[in-house]
Amino acid sequence: MATILDGKAHADRMLEAVRLGVEARKAKGLRAPGLAVVLVGDDPASHVYVRNKSAACAKVGITSFEHRLPADTAQADLDALIDRLNADPGVDGILVQLPLPKGLDSKRALHRISPEKDVDGFHPINQGLLLEGLPGLRPCTPSACMSLLAHHGVDLKGIRAVVLGRSEIVGKPMALMLLEQHATVTIAHSRTKDLPAVCREADLLVAAVGRPGLVEGSWLKPGAVVVDVGINRVESLSLGEQIFAAEPKKLENLKTKGAVLCGDVRFGEAMDVASAVTPVPGGVGPLTIAGLLTNALMAADRNR
Ligand code: GUN
Fold first, then answer.
1. Are 30-114 and 140-285 equal in CATH topology?
2. 223: exposed, middle or buried (C-beta count within 10 Å: 0-12, 13-18, 19+)?
3. Ligand 1: centre distance to CA 49 (Å)
4. Which of 73, 118, 147, 249 is most buried as measured by Cβ atoms within 10 A of its Cβ?
5. In the chain, which residues have pLDDT < 50?
6. Residue ranges per domain, the chain?
7. What is the pTM of this model?
C-alpha cells in the first residue's frame, strides 16, 4: 500500500511560513503584502478559486484586492486596469484569473503584468529566468509540487521523471524544475505514442492533463511516486464505475451526489502499485494557493 502525500497538510506548512514572513515584515515596520486578483466574467469555477484565494490571504495577513469586470470588458479596459495595478505601490502581486472570456487575449493580458508583480510566473521574463535556472517568480502549482516532494525526501537526482501534459501553467515549468534537480525528464502528452509504456518508465510520474482516470494502475512502475495535478468532475456513472472500481466509497458518493472529483490517475489502483501518491481532492489542489501566497510574499520582499 502506497503512502498518501497529504497536500493539505503541506499547504498548511507553507501558509504558516508565509504568515511568519508577513509578521517579520510588520516587525520591521513594512506593510503587509498586497495581492490583486482580477476576475473577468462569471465562470463559476473561477469565482470559487478567487473566493478561496481571498480567504487564504486573510488567514496569513496578506491584503487582497478583488477587481471584478464584466464578461464583455474590452481588452483596452483590461489593459488599463493592469497598468493601474502595475503602478500601484500597495500592490505587490497581480493575478489575472484564467480562463478569460472569449474575445479577450489572455497572452496579451499576462504579458502586460509587470514581471516583478507576476505572482503566477507566467510572464515571458519569469519563464525565461526559470529556463536559465535563475531565481524569479515561478508558476505556483509546479513549485508547490517540488516543495511537497522535497518535504517528503523524494530524491530526484538521476531518476526517470515523466511529466504527462505540456501546458505553460504546469507541464512545461514542472519539467524544467525537475531537470534543475537533476532528474531525467520526459514530457509526454496526448500525441505521445504508447503512453502506457512511457509512463511505466517513470520513477516519478506527474499527471497534468485534465483527463479523469486516464492513468491506470497498470501504467505505473511498481514503487513509483505519483503526483496527480488533475482536478476533474466526474458525473457519468459508467465512467465512474471504471475509475472508482478500487474505491467503493467514491463510487457510492457518485451514485448519491451525482458528481465527484477525481484526478488524472486512478487513485485506488495507484495505491496498490506506487510507493507514494497524492490524492484528489486534498493533494495538489491546496498547494496551488500556498504557492501563490509564497510568491506574493516573495514579490513584496523583493519590491520593497
Ligand atoms: N486558472 C486555473 N489555474 C490558474 C492559475 O494557476 N492561475 C491563474 N491566473 N488562473 C488559473
1. yes
2. exposed
3. 8
4. 118
5. none
6. 30-114, 140-285
7. 0.97
